[in-house]
Write a structure and sequence with these properties.
Elements (H helix, E strand, L loop, with lengths): L4 E12 L2 E12 L3 E5 L6 H9 L6 E6 L2 E3 L4 H4 L2 E4 L11 H9 L8 H7 L15 H12 L6 E5 L7 H16 L3 E5 L3 H7 L2 E6 L2 E6 L1 H7 L4 E8 L6 H7 L3 E3 L4 E6 L2 H12 L5 E8 L3 H9 L6
Keywords: ATP-binding, Cell membrane, Membrane, Nucleotide-binding, Translocase, Transport
Family: Belongs to the ABC transporter superfamily.
InterPro entries: AAA+_ATPase (IPR003593), ABC_transporter-like_ATP-bd (IPR003439), ABC_transporter-like_CS (IPR017871), ABC_transporter_ATP-binding (IPR050763), P-loop_NTPase (IPR027417)
Length: 308
């Protein structure tokens, strides 16, 4: 293992009866790097991360922390990692500061509560009780708790859920600052824009296996030098994607009623699109031609939207 690698996984496996939740996953993460782990619901990403956090035991495989094989995630590892869970249960009668002080007391070293309150912009809520916090404020508190022990590796699970756009951007700046300080960030998110902005590398998991790994640009290039024709459908009550594919085999469904076609022959594809939908009652509307992004890569590889 390279000295620069702070976390490694080799052939990790976890089974639930006949279900192979994690089926031979391997990857490495370097110091100061942000790795985004993406996958549809049920793909195995949550189980993988929970194993690395010590919340579940693997059935097979090896885990390396800081260059050493670990049989279990004991206190010596937990002192060096921070975990922000998607659903965090705090004592509702405690204030924000009291919550940070409580969790800080569980570690041999800790960052000052005042520093974390400033870092997560919780100054106005420092004496507010947990039960009175909004969803976004609770998320910021959960991230602050994950950083209380000044960890070398931070696990962030859907950290910006419930946040408004301004708060989301603020947290992105916090993650960027952590990376500059040499911290390693393991990010799971449903926001593709978030993964594109923060991740140095992206790991896409489906059916318990790694199906793609690389930088955002590498993954985009992997689907070819193509263009995306994105459009809305009007003039019809309902039509299934299966029936649409009979007319347009290359069509793929996006969110909010939009569709797309990936092509390297834009003019030809547009001509076919309008020709094949002529006299069908289908109206093509709001056409956009753009370069592929991470969402397109994900859809191409898994056949599903990240939120499916």
């Amino acid at each position: 293992m390279s000295a620069e690698v702070v976390l490694g996984v080799k052939n990790l496996r976890k089974y639930y009866g006949q279900v192979k939740a994690v089926n031979g996953i391997s990857f490495e993460v370097k110091r100061g790097e942000c790795l985004a782990i993406l996958g549809p619901n049920g793909a195995g990403k949550t189980t993988t991360v929970e194993i690395l956090e010590g919340l579940r035991k693997p059935d097979a495989g090896e885990i390396y922390y800081f260059g050493k094989v670990v049989k279990r995630i004991d206190d010596s590892i937990k002192e060096r990692i921070g975990v922000q869970l998607q659903s965090s249960a705090f004592l509702e009668h405690l204030t924000v500061k009291e919550t940070l002080d409580f969790f800080g007391g569980l570690y041999s070293k800790r960052l000052p509560s005042k520093e974390l309150i400033r870092l997560l912009s919780l100054e106005e809520k420092v004496n507010a009780r947990v039960k009175g916090l909004s969803g976004g404020q609770l998320q910021r508190l959960a991230v602050a708790v994950a950083l209380i022990n000044d960890p070398e590796i931070v696990y962030l699970d859907e950290p910006t859920t419930g946040m408004d756009p301004q708060a989301r951007r603020m947290l992105w700046s916090t993650v960027e600052d952590l990376k500059k300080r040499g911290k390693t960030v393991i990010l799971t998110t449903h926001y593709m824009e978030e993964a594109e902005y923060l991740a140095d590398r992206v790991l896409i998991i489906d059916h318990g296996k790694v199906i793609a790994e690389g930088t955002v640009e590498e993954l985009i290039r992997s689907i070819g030098e193509q263009s995306i024709i994105e459009f809305s459908l009007a003039g019809i009550e309902t039509i299934s994607i299966e029936n649409l594919k009979k007319l347009l085999p290359d069509i793929e469904a996006l969110e909010e009623g939009r569709c797309m076609i990936t092509t390297n022959k834009v003019e030809e594809s547009l001509s076919q699109l309008f020709e094949k939908t002529k006299n069908t009652g289908i109206i093509i509307d709001d056409v956009i031609i753009r370069r592929p992004n991470l969402e397109d890569v994900f859809l191409k590889l898994t056949g599903r939207s990240l939120r499916d």
